[in-house]
Every structure is written in structure tokens, then in C-alpha cells.
């Protein structure tokens, strides 16, 4: 591959449990040192770097007295409470030896679904990055419930990349990149160097979860990359054990798979990213068949007269699902009226609507099919 001129400034690196811990489930200082050395090299070159690090449960379960990774939620959370401390202690010690300070940020999905907390997290991370600190982000596994989790740190890393307006997301794993078939089962599988679109064939080739020490397989990485691409962020997937993998990935000269979002016409701004990937819909509105295509293709605002039915109870400012009369979810949006008000308005005539000029959902607060490449159902993760 031919190296490109480096113009990236803010990099999010996600690293999995198996790339940080030994086969016995303890923190591998050697592996952490390798990663930190590469981050330091980027920092020395003027980059802002944020790490999304897995490994808390794997790092802590042996200190809790288990010989293998526990299965129950309370045992995993207890392991994480130990492992989080061990991980950040190791990171801090090694970064400090290079003259850099590391910070710890433990996030729950609620921090993303609440817009005020979302913006507060963004502001905090921006201060850290601007001051030269290396934030190390992980889901707060000690308190997160299974039904409220991001699912895995692949998804978290993509959402964090969007949160901080990253220039590149680097996902490090125990595989060289994305193949056109499962290389563990097909010796003729080929590594895909450049990917411009996540096709159904690519998703089918992603297969099942990978190593036992982690929670995210190739499928979760593809879902994360879809989020990054929809946000206009380029991504890279490669093997954490490859020499200089991070530095070379930033310079487009590493073995692995590069994902280019240039073909994604509709890059989402920060507000729409939050609506699409992080908000929790509180109700549903059904649009009339005559306005469905205009909403999707022309991204027009939705007015009360465009609505067929309203379901659920919600207040003004809530996020709702937008569905058509067949029940297909076609979008998400922030409403300007409560469910009670909308139910009253959709039965009014145009003359009676003269005092209600506000759109039900303004186009600037509306996310529909992303050029039909990423259906909105795929955006409503977790």
C-alpha cells in the first residue's frame, strides 16, 4: 500500500480483552506496553488519542478466586470492580514512564441515551484531550445491567468516536482484518484491504463471536464500523499483535482492512448521531402513505397532518420512532408536541391547524434511512 499524507488529528483506538490479558486472564504488562508505546509515538507526533479498552472482567476474575472467566452477572461485575483498578493502574504507570498522564472514564449506556449527560461526557473528554491527557474509556461493567449494556466495546468505541468527532477509529483484535469468508474455516479466504460499503455479503461473512476472553466477534465489529461510517469516520480493523499496527494504520500503511466513509453521502452531524445511535425512543408516530417517500428521500419536516396515528405517552422533546402503515420503522425524530397534543392535532382540519404552524418533527431533528445503506432499524442499537 502507498502511504498517504497524514492529516488525521484525533484517533480512537479500541483494543479487546484478548489483546491485553494473558491466557490465564491476568493483565499482560508486555501487551499493554506494546500498545502504549504505539500511542506514545502518535502523541509525540501531535495526535490526540483516546483508548477504548476492554479487559476489566478478564483482568479481575483470578483475583476474585476463579480459575476461569465467570458466567453469572454478579460474578462478572465483581471481577470488573477488581479488574478496572488493575487495568488503569497498569496503563497509568506505563504512560507516566513516557511522560504522559492517563485518565479513566467509565461509561454506561444511560450516559449516552440522556442528551445532557452525553454532551457533558463530550465536554469532559475534550478538555482531557486538549490538555494532552490520554482518556481510557470502558463501560462501567460493575454497575451496568445486561439489558442496559452497549453489548461490547466495539459498539462503545464507534459511539465514542462519534461523540468526540474522531478522524479515525482503529479496532484492534486477534484477527488481521475483514475476510470475504471465515479464515478459520476457509483456507482460501481473502483479506479485504479496502471496503467502501458494508454489503449483506460482508455481514454474512462476519460470522459468529470470536475468542472466549472477549464479548465481541467480527459481527459486532462490522456493526461498530457501520456506525462510524454513517458518522463520516474512517475505520481500520487489524491484528493487535502486528508490529507498529497503530502507527501504520494511521498512515494507511498497515496490514488490515480500511473502511472509507466517502461513499456515504449523508454524514450525520452530532445531533443526528445522538438521535440515531444513542437516544431511547419513547413512542411511535405512523406517517401517511402519501408522505412516506418524501420523508425518506427529501428529508422533509413532518407535520401533524402527515400523521396517521400516535402510540405511547411522551412529552415534547422526546425521541420517537417513525413508522409507515405497514409497521416498518423508517426513522427517528424529536417531537415538538406531546403525544396528547399530537393525538388532538391529527384530527383537526387544515383551517383548525392555522394556530399550529410548528412541524411535528423538524427535518433537522429527523434521521431516516441513510441513503438506504444503513436502515434505521440497524441504527437503533441496544
Automatic annotation (TrEMBL):
One of its GO terms (cellular component) is cytosol. Keywords: Amino-acid biosynthesis, ATP-binding, Cytoplasm, Kinase, Nucleotide-binding, Proline biosynthesis, Transferase. The keyword Cell wall biogenesis/degradation does not apply. ATP binds at residues 14, 173-174, 215-221. Its EC number is 2.7.2.11. Pfam families: AA_kinase (PF00696), PUA (PF01472). Catalyzes the transfer of a phosphate group to glutamate to form L-glutamate 5-phosphate. This is Glutamate 5-kinase. It comes from Virgibacillus phasianinus.
Amino acid at each position: 500500500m502507498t502511504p498517504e499524507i497524514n492529516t488525521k488529528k484525533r484517533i480512537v483506538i479500541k483494543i479487546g480483552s484478548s489483546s491485553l490479558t494473558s491466557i490465564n486472564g491476568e493483565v499482560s504488562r508486555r501487551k499493554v506496553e506494546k500498545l502504549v508505546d504505539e500511542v506514545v509515538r502518535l502523541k509525540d507526533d501531535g495526535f490526540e488519542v483516546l483508548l477504548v479498552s476492554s479487559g476489566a472482567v478478564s483482568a479481575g476474575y483470578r483475583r476474585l478466586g476463579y480459575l476461569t472467566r465467570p458466567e453469572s452477572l454478579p460474578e462478572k461485575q465483581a471481577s470488573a470492580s477488581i479488574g478496572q483498578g488493575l487495568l488503569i493502574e497498569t496503563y497509568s504507570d506505563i504512560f507516566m514512564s513516557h511522560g504522559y498522564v492517563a485518565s479513566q472514564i467509565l461509561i454506561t449506556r444511560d450516559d449516552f441515551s440522556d442528551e445532557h449527560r452525553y454532551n457533558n461526557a463530550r465536554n469532559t473528554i475534550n478538555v482531557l484531550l486538549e490538555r494532552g491527557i490520554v482518556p481510557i474509556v470502558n463501560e462501567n461493567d460493575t454497575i451496568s445491567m445486561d439489558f442496559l449494556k452497549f453489548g461490547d466495546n466495539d459498539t462503545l468505541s464507534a459511539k465514542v468516536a462519534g461523540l468526540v468527532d474522531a478522524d479515525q477509529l482503529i479496532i484492534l483484535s486477534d484477527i488481521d482484518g475483514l475476510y470475504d469468508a471465515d479464515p478459520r474455516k476457509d483456507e482460501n479466504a481473502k483479506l479485504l484491504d479496502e471496503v467502501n460499503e458494508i454489503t449483506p455479503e460482508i455481514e454474512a461473512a462476519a460470522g459468529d463471536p470470536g475468542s472466549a476472553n472477549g464479548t465481541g466477534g467480527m459481527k459486532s465489529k462490522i456493526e461498530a464500523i457501520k456506525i462510524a461510517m454513517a458518522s463520516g469516520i474512517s475505520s481500520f480493523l487489524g491484528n493487535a499483535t502486528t508490529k507498529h499496527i497503530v502507527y501504520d494504520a494511521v498512515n494507511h500503511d498497515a496490514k488490515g482492512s480500511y473502511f472509507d466513509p466517502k461513499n456515504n453521502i449523508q454524514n450525520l452531524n452530532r445531533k443526528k448521531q445522538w438521535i440515531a445511535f444513542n437516544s431511547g425512543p419513547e413512542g411511535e408516530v405512523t406517517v401517511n402513505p402519501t408522505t412516506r417517500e418524501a420523508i425518506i428521500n427529501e428529508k422533509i419536516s413532518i407535520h401533524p397532518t402527515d400523521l396517521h396515528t400516535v402510540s405511547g405517552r411522551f412529552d415534547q422533546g422526546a425521541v420517537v420512532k417513525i413508522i409507515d402503515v405497514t409497521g416498518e420503522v423508517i426513522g427517528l425524530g424529536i417531537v415538538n408536541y406531546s403525544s396528547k397534543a399530537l393525538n388532538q392535532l391529527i384530527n383537526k382540519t387544515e383551517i383548525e391547524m392555522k394556530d399550529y404552524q410548528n412541524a411535528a418533527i423538524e427535518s433537522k431533528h429527523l434521521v431516516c434511512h441513510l441513503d438506504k445503506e444503513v436502515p434505521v432499524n440497524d441504527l437503533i442499537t441496544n
